[in-house]
Structure formats: C-alpha cells, structure tokens
C-alpha cells in the first residue's frame, strides 16, 4: 500500500507530527511505502527521516506532488476544526483533489468538544472518504449528530515504552532544584492547555509542601503571559515555577523537539499535572503514565475513557461550561486538584506500570492497516 500523510512541517516537530511520524515508521516496517506532503514547505521535494517529502505550501505544489507520488490513500492528521469551512477557510480542500485522482482521503482528527457542532459530523460525509478519531466517545459524538458509523474509525495515539519508562531521572539538565517535590506539566502555551491553572494548583499546594515546585515543559511566549500569572499568585522570584533552559520563544511542541530530554523530565518528576480545558487524546498523559508517574488531570469524558483503567490516575472534578466552537468546556477545580496532588505525593510513584497493547505503536499501525484496506479497495 502506498500511503501519503499531510502535515504542517516536514521535520515532524509538532504533536501531530509525532503521531504522523510513528505511523509512517510502523507502516514502513509492515512493508508499506509512506510519503509526506508538508503544508509549510515550498521548496523542492526532499527527504526527512528517510521519507520522501513533497511541498504543499499552495494548491499547485500539492497537486503536483500528488501527481508525481500517486499515493493510494492520503491521511491528513489535524485538529477537527480544520475540516469545517465555517471555522477555518482552507486555501484548498483535499477530498476533491484526491477524488479527481482516484486517491482515498482520510481525515484523522481528535474531537475536543462535546456536543460536536453538526457541521463537524457532516464533514464525515462531505470532506473525506473516512474519518479517524482517537477515542470511542469521540466516534459516538459524531454518530450521535448523524455521521455514518461505517465512515468513522478509532485509532489511538501511542507511546514508545523503550523511551518512556520508569527509572531514575537527572534534575541537573533541567536546571531545577535538586530537592523538593517536582510537579510536571507538558504542552504548548495555548488557551486550552490552561497552563496558569497548573500554577494556581501549585500555589494552593505550598501550604502542605512548601518546597514543591512546578516545571512547565513549554515556551514562555504564547497565549498566556506566564510570568504575570506567577507574579499575581505571589510566586515570582521564589524559584517555584521553572521552564526549560534556552528555549527562547520557541512554540514548537517540546515533547517532539527533545524526546530524550522530555523522557528525563518524566522520570525526574514526582507528579504529572494537567488542568487542560480539553484534549482530543493527550499524548503527554500517556507518556507520563508509561514513565511511572502518578497523574492528576482534568475530568473529561475522553480522559475517563482513556485513563480510567490506570489506578494511579486521579481526575480533577470540573464544571461543564456551555459548548463553544473551540472545545474549552471543562473547568477544573484548583482546590481539589491540590488535594489530589498532595495525595499522590504521599503515596509515591507506582512500582510497575503495564501499558496495554492498544497504546503501543506496532498494534496501532496494524489496526490502521486493517482500517485502510477496504477504503483503498473501493
């Protein structure tokens, strides 16, 4: 099978890039040919990580690449809102280009908001031959709004347990204090990640653990001015909130930029904390679980489905706001979150963390292969 993937950058340096890269690697291991079309690349065709990469910065370049590469199926891994013209005015739509060339088109997208807008359910029939989501409750959200069940499949994100596993970490490379409980948060500085919420939880925890601190594996610039939130909570200059050294203003998803450095951060931390408003999957949560960290995370339907089977995951009670077009629906309670973090610290890290095969890349690629075969044969 010849499979094309659409992504933003050919260096696989975003969260979706990690997903794309691992699927491409595993499909190649299974004997399939994989190609990438990079939407922010306008140069000549090149190679990255051993894969052929075609430019897709405009429709002419993308169509030329499709004509040359001739994939049997094209998979676009992206936020669900990209496929709704009312929310995002795409420069071009992939499905008509693919249909004109006899290429099957698959929209691979996490669903972050419930209930979903009816336009999103309609895109299952109007924007793609098949849609992949990352949780069963996401598929149900689409089918409840009228999407044909036979055109939606579930494909989880995965984790490489050879990289992310329990063990002793080193704090020195992180530039953080050698002593004191370390809380870890991973994610880009965007609105739905709610990074200030994690700082607020820390401020409430300090009465019980005065030497605790928070390591934000993110960039200082972005949606939130993190230094302002630190100052307003009375933590400025006290060595309580730390960011990776030498990151500057990079908004690259840092778990893709430095995998070994991130793996060390997971092994070094004592608790993984996420007060996110919404996630379509939450790859850092899976990485933290695989690394043997207790996890404290916002209670959402997706999180309950994915992480409810792990005994060292605690869910922060949240209130449901009115649905918004952007999916920032669950507001976690910081006081209870601080209680859950304190409880996790008192228990310590779990000794053994088995990861089910459904979250491991070889099995995920095998499932993708089974899902694609009937689509390609049509």
What would you say this structure looks like, in words?
- The protein is an alpha/beta fold and 378 residues long.
- It contains 13 helices and 16 strands.
- It has helices spanning 15-29, 59-69, 94-100, 118-126, 136-144, 195-205, 226-232, 254-257, 259-268, 283-290, 301-307, 334-347, 361-377, and strands spanning 2-7, 33-38, 46-48, 51-55, 73-77, 104-108, 130-133, 152-154, 182-186, 213-217, 241-242, 271-274, 295-298, 313-316, 318-320, 330-332.
- Strands 3-4-2-1-5-6-7-8 form an 8-stranded mixed sheet, with helices on both faces.
- Residues 248-256 have low confidence and may be disordered.
Q: Summed up, what is this model?
A:
The protein has 13 helices and 16 strands.
Strand content: 15-25%
Classify the fold: give the CATH topology of the largest domain.
Rossmann fold
CATH architecture of the largest domain: 3-Layer(aba) Sandwich
Per DSSP E runs of 2 or more residues, the count of β-strands stands at: 16
Strand order of the largest sheet: 3-4-2-1-5-6-7-8
| Tally of DSSP helical segments | 13
What's the topology here?
Elements: E1 2-7, H1 15-29, E2 33-38, E3 46-48, E4 51-55, H2 59-69, E5 73-77, H3 94-100, E6 104-108, H4 118-126, E7 130-133, H5 136-144, E8 152-154, E9 182-186, H6 195-205, E10 213-217, H7 226-232, E11 241-242, H8 254-257, H9 259-268, E12 271-274, H10 283-290, E13 295-298, H11 301-307, E14 313-316, E15 318-320, E16 330-332, H12 334-347, H13 361-377
Parallel strand pairs: 1-2, 1-5, 2-4, 5-6, 6-7, 7-8, 9-10, 9-12, 10-11, 12-13, 13-14
Antiparallel strand pairs: 3-4, 15-16
Helix pairs in contact: 1-13, 6-12
């Amino acid at each position: 099978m010849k499979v094309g993937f659409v992504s933003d950058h050919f260096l696989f340096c975003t969260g979706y890039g990690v997903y794309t890269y691992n699927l491409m690697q595993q499909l190649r291991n299974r004997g399939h040919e994989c190609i990438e079309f990079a939407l922010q690349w306008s140069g000549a065709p090149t190679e990255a990580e051993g894969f052929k990469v075609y430019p897709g910065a405009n429709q002419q370049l993308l169509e030329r690449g499709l004509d040359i590469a001739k994939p049997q199926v094209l998979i676009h891994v992206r936020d669900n809102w990209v496929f709704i013209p009312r929310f995002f005015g795409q420069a071009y739509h992939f499905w008509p280009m693919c249909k004109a060339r006899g290429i099957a088109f698959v929209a691979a997208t996490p669903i972050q908001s419930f209930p979903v807008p009816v336009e999103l359910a309609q895109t299952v029939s109007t924007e793609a031959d098949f849609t992949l989501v990352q949780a069963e409750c996401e598929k149900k959200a689409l089918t409840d709004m009228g999407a044909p069940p036979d055109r939606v499949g579930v494909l989880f994100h995965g984790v490489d347990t050879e990289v992310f596993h329990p063990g002793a970490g080193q704090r020195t490379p992180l530039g953080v204090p050698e002593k004191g409980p370390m809380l870890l948060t991973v994610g880009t500085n965007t609105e739905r990640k709610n990074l200030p919420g994690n700082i607020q939880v820390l401020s409430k925890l300090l009465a019980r653990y005065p030497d605790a601190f928070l390591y934000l594996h993110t960039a200082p610039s972005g949606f939130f001015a993190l230094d302002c939130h630190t100052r307003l909570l009375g933590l400025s200059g006290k060595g309580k909130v730390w960011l990776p050294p030498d990151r500057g203003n990079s908004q690259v998803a840092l778990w893709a930029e430095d995998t070994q450095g991130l793996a060390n951060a997971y092994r070094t931390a004592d608790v993984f904390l996420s007060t996110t408003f919404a996630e379509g999957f939450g790859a850092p949560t899976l990485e933290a679980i695989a690394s043997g960290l207790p996890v404290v995370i916002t209670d959402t339907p997706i999180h309950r489905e994915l992480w409810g089977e792990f005994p060292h995951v605690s869910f922060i009670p949240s209130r449901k706001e009115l649905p918004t077009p952007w999916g920032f629906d669950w507001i976690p309670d910081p006081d209870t979150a601080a209680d859950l973090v304190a409880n996790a610290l008192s228990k310590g890290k779990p000794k053994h963390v088995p990861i089910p095969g459904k979250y491991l890349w070889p099995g995920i690629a095998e499932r993708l292969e089974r899902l694609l075969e009937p689509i390609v044969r049509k």
